[in-house]
Amino acid sequence: METRTLVKNVLNTTYEEIPSSVVEHAKKSIQNWMGVAIGAAYHESMDMVLELKEDLNSGEQVSVLGRPEKVDLLLASLTNGMSSHIFDFDDTHLDTIHHPSGPIAPVVFALGEHYDLEPKELIRAFVLGCEVELRISNAVYPSHYSLGWHITSTAGVFGAAAAAGILLKFDEEQMLHALGLAGTQSSGLREMFGTMTKPFHPGKAAQNGLLAALLAKKGFTSSKQVLEAKRGFASVLAPEYNLDRINENWGTQWELLKNAFKPYACGIVLHPSIDACIKLRDYASVKDVKEIEVTVNPYVLELTGKPEPQTGLEGKFSIYHSATVGFLEGDAGEDQYKDEVVLRPDVVSFRSKVKPTVDPNMQEDEATAKLTLINGEEHTVKIEHATGSIENPMTQEHLDTKFSKLTQPIIGAENGKKVIEKVGNFENLSSIKEVIELCTSKNILV
Amino acid sequence: METRTLVKNVLNTTYEEIPSSVVEHAKKSIQNWMGVAIGAAYHESMDMVLELKEDLNSGEQVSVLGRPEKVDLLLASLTNGMSSHIFDFDDTHLDTIHHPSGPIAPVVFALGEHYDLEPKELIRAFVLGCEVELRISNAVYPSHYSLGWHITSTAGVFGAAAAAGILLKFDEEQMLHALGLAGTQSSGLREMFGTMTKPFHPGKAAQNGLLAALLAKKGFTSSKQVLEAKRGFASVLAPEYNLDRINENWGTQWELLKNAFKPYACGIVLHPSIDACIKLRDYASVKDVKEIEVTVNPYVLELTGKPEPQTGLEGKFSIYHSATVGFLEGDAGEDQYKDEVVLRPDVVSFRSKVKPTVDPNMQEDEATAKLTLINGEEHTVKIEHATGSIENPMTQEHLDTKFSKLTQPIIGAENGKKVIEKVGNFENLSSIKEVIELCTSKNILV
Q1: Using one digit for the tens of pLDDT, what is the confidence trace for B146-205?
Q2: Is B226–A184 a contact, with Cβ atoms under 8 angstroms apart?
Q3: What InterPro entries does this protein map onto (chains A, B) (predicted)?
Q4: Res. A254 pLDDT band, cuts 50 70 90
Q5: What is the pLDDT of residue A445?
Q6: Mean pLDDT, range B115-132, rounded to an integer
Q7: pLDDT tens column, B369-387
Q8: A57: closest chain B residue by CA
Q9: What average pLDDT does this structure show over B328-339?
Q10: CB < 8 Å to A222, chain B
Q11: How far apart are CA A337 and CA A319, in angstroms?
Q12: Best B43, B49, B56 residue to mutate vs chain A (most A CBs within 10 Å)
C-alpha cells in the first residue's frame, strides 16, 4: 500500500501546509537549477538534442532556458533537465547523492508556461515532486545506487510524474497509474558517468515522468502498486530496500531541506578536498610546492581517481585536477573545468604533485590536505564539512554569485539580477512567464 | 569487449550473407507483426497515445498502421510497437519469452517510410536488430526475466537502436554510442502485465532505441561497453548472465529462426491447454461436461491463475477462461477475449468446471486435459508441442488466415490479400510504401 499512501499524502498536501522554510528552500533550488541550466544551454550536447526539433518536425510550445527556441512539452523537459546536469554543478540531496531539481523543475516549468499556471501551485508541485523522488531514493539507497543505478533518474521519474499529476489536477486513481507508468520507465546506468549520457538521465526522467502523466490523464492504465509489488520498482531495482522510508514523517520532515548546493562544478565528493586546497593557498606559492597529500574517504578516490584527465568532463572526475585548480586558481567553477584549462601546461605539471590517499575513517564530506614545501615545511588543513554541505551551506549571496557567473554570458548581468529577484518572490508573481521571458528569446546574448 | 564485437558483427553482416531461410522467416515475422498491429489499431489505448499528437502539436512524418494519422518518427515507433502487443498475439522467441518484432519493426517501418529506404536494407536491419535483442536476451535469461524485467523491452531497446543505426549508416563508434544510449534507457517491469502498460513496453523500447540512434548520429557520446561494464546492463539488470551468448555462432546460428507465431491471442504458456480443450470437443457437448482437469507446468498457473476474469485483458491471464473458450468455441482468437465474451453467462458458468493442476515434470509447451462427463465417462488428450511451437509451427496458410481475421475489419479483405502478397515479396518491392499505403489513410474502413 506504500504507493497508494504516497499518492494520498501528495494529493492531500496543500500549498498552505508547506512550511515557509521549505518554500524558501524550493526557491533557492529553483534559482540554482536555472543558473546551471542557463549556463550550459549552449553545450554541444544541447545543440544535438535540440536538432531533434528539425528531425521530428516537432511542435513549438514552451521555452528552453537560455535559448531562443521553443519546443514541445516533452522535448523541453528533456533539454531543460539535461542542461542543468551538464556541468555537474546542480543540487544534491546528500543522503542519497540524488540531484533533485533536474527531473522535477523542467516539468514544472513546461506545464507552468504552457498552461500559465498559478505560481503557488508550481511551488507546491516542485516541492511535492522532490519529496516523492527523494523519499523513494531514501527507500532504496544505498544498495540501488551501489548496484549501478543513477538514482537521480531512476527515482526522479516518479517525482516528475507526481509533479505533473499535481499540475494536471489528478485524482487518486490517475496519480496511481501515472506512478506506475513512471516506474516502468525508470532507468539510467552509472556506467554512463563521464559521457554526455549522464546529464541526459535527469532530462529523460523529466520527459518520461511527464509522458506518464499525460497518458494517465487520458485514462491509460498501469499497476497501482508499482513501488511495493513483488515485481515492482523496489524489488526489481534494489537488492535491499526499506519501503517504510517512503511515507514516514510525511508533512513533518521535508527531504527538500536536505538539498545542498554546490560551490564547485564537480562531484560533491571532491568539494572538501577543493576547500582544503584553496585554504592551503595562504601558506605557499606554486613554485615552492613539493606535493599536496589529500586524504579522503575511499569511495571518493573510487569515483574520481583519474590522474591524467584529457577533457574538462574527465577533469570533473579527477581529484588530481580538482585539487590542482583549487590551489592554483582558488576556485573550481565551470571555468576551471574547461578543456583548455585541463590541458594547460602549468595545470598538467601541478597535477603530478597531488597525492591522494584514502582513510576509511573519513566521512565523504571530510578531507585533509597536507602541503609539503620544497624546503621541507609542512602545513595541514582539515575540512570537517565542505562548503555547500548541510552543516556549512552556501549563503544566498554565494548562490547569487554562482548564478550570475553562470548566466551572465548568456542572458546578461541585468536580466540575471531580475531573475534572482523574481525567483526570490516566486509565490507572488502573477505568472511564471515573468521569469522565463528573461531567460529566452530576445534576452539571449550568445 | 562484447559490445564492440557485437557492433562489428552487425556492421559486417551484409544482406547477401543472411540465409534465405532467415529472410523468409523475417517476412513471416513482419506479416504477423503487421496483422496484430493493424488488428489493435483502434484499441482505446491507441487513441490515448495518438492524442499526444494534439497535446504536443507534433509533426506529421510517417504512418501508424491501420490508422489514417501521420505522426513523427518517435511517436510512430511508440504507437506501432504498442499496437502489435495489445492483443498478446504477437511473435515469441520461445527460449526467452521475448516478442522480437515489437521493438524492431516499428523503427524499420518509420525510417523506411520516411527516407524511402531500399527494402533489402530494411530486411537486413530487421534481421540484425532481432539478432541483437535476442542474443542479449539469451545472455541474461532466465534470471533477468525472473527478477521481474519485461525482457521484450529491456533487451528490445538495443535491437531497436541497432536496426536504426544500420539504416542511418552508422560506423562502429556511432553504433557503440547508440547501444550505450539504448542500454541506459532499458526498462519495463513485469508488474505491469495485465494493464495497458504492458503493450506500452515494446513501443517505448522502439521509441527509446530510435532516440538513441538519432542522438548517436549527431555525435552524442555514451559508454562504449554498455553490455559488459561493471555497472553496465548485464551486471545491473541480471543476477546471473553469460555474455558469451551474445556473439557465439554469429552468422551460423540465427535466433530469428526460433521466432514462433501464436495461433491464440494470449500468453504462449496457455496454448497447449487450449489445443487440448479444442480436441476435447470431439468427445462431448457442453451440457454433458462435469469438469475438465488441465495439467500444466507450475509456471503456467503462476502466470495465468486468474479464476474469475472481469475483462478481456484479464481473460488472457486466465487458464480458466482460455480452456473454456477452447472447448466452447474451438478457438481463442481476439474475439474470444472480448470483454462481452468474458462476462457471458455460459462462459462464466463453464469456467468453474475447469480445474487446473500443476506437474513440475510437464514442459511449458506441454499440457494434458482430462474431460470427465456427468455420466462418469473420461477422455484425456495430451499435447506434446502446442500449435505455434518450433516443433509444430503455424503454416503460411495459418498465418494468412490469422492476418486476414485480424485486419479485415480495418483495411478490408482485398487490401489484406495484397499486403500478404507484397510482404511475401518484400525484398523485391520498389518501396516499402507499397505495403504501408494499403494499411493507412484512404484504405481504412473503420
Answers
A1: 999 999 999 999 999 999 999 999 999 999 999 999 999 999 999 999 899 999 999 999
A2: no
A3: MmgE/PrpD_sf, MmgE/PrpD_sf_1, MmgE/PrpD_sf_2, MmgE_PrpD, MmgE_PrpD_C, MmgE_PrpD_N
A4: very high
A5: 85
A6: 98
A7: 999 999 999 999 999 999 9
A8: B59
A9: 94
A10: 192, 195-197
A11: 12
A12: B56
Distant-in-sequence contacts of B308-311, Cβ < 8 A, 24+ apart: B308/B348, B308/B351, B309/B342, B310/B342, B310/B343, B311/B339, B311/B342
- Across the range A284-288, mean pLDDT stands at 94
pLDDT higher than 80, residue A38: yes
Residue A286 Cα, gap to closest chain B Cα (Å):
36
Residue B23 corresponds to which amino acid? V
Contact B191 A229 (CB under 8 A): yes
Q: What are phi and psi of B20, to 5 degrees?
A: -65, -30
CA atoms within 13 A on the CB side of A124: 20
User: Which residue in A55, A145, A317 has the most chain B C-beta atoms within 10 A of its own C-beta, making it the best mutation to test that interface?
Assistant: A55
Residues of A in contact with B204 (CB under 8 A): 185
Residues in chain B: 446
**B133-146 confidence digits (pLDDT tens):** 999 999 999 999 99
* Chain A residues touching B228 at Cβ < 8 A: none
Within 8 A by CB and 6+ apart from A158, the residues are A132, A133, A136, A179, A182, A183, A186, A209, A233
Inter-chain residue contact B55 with A221, CB threshold 8 Å? no
Domains of chain B: 2-261+395-443 (1.10.4100.10), 268-383 (3.30.1330.120)
What confidence tens digit (pLDDT) does each residue in A149-191 have?
A: 999 999 999 999 999 999 999 999 999 999 999 999 999 999 9
pLDDT of residue B267: 85
Question: How many beta-carbon pairs under 8 angstroms link A with B?
Answer: 172
Answer whether B103's CB lies under 8 Å from B209's CB: yes
Question: Are A224 and A180 spatial neighbours (Cβ–Cβ below 8 Å)?
Answer: yes
Unique residue bearing C-alpha cell 526522467: A205
Q: Could A48 and B233 be called an inter-chain contact, meaning their C-beta atoms sit closer than 8 Å? A: no
Residues 309-368 of A with CB under 8 A from B: none
B229 Cβ under 8 Å from any chain A Cβ: yes
pLDDT at B268: 85
Q: Looking at CA atoms only, how far is residue A177 from chain B in angstroms?
A: 9
- Chain B positions in Cβ-Cβ contact with residue A185 (cut-off 8 Å): 187-188, 204
Residue B446 has pLDDT above 80, yes or no: no
Q: Are B112 and B426 in contact (CB under 8 A)?
A: no
B222–A197: do the CB atoms touch at under 8 Å?
Answer: yes
A143 touches chain B (CB under 8 A): no
HEC sequence for chain B: CHHHHHHHHHHHCCHHHCCHHHHHHHHHHHHHHHHHHHHCCCCHHHHHHHCHHHHCCCCCCEECCCCCCEECHHHHHHHHHHHHHHCCCCCEECCCCECCHHHHHHHHHHHHHHHCCCHHHHHHHHHHHHHHHHHHHHHHCCHHHHHCECHHHHCHHHHHHHHHHHHCCCCHHHHHHHHHHHHCCCCCEHHHCCCCHHHHHHHHHHHHHHHHHHHHHCCCCCCCCCCCCCCCHHHHHCCCCCCHHHHCCCCCCCHHHHEECCCCCCCHHHHHHHHHHHHHHHHCCHHHEEEEEEEECHHHHHHHECCCCCCHHHHCCEHHHHHHHHHHHCCCCHHHHCHHHHCCHHHHHHHCCEEEEECCCCCCCCEEEEEEECCCCEEEEEECCCCCCCCCCCCHHHHHHHHHHHHHHHHCHHHHHHHHHHHHCHHHCCCCHHHHCCCCHHHCCC
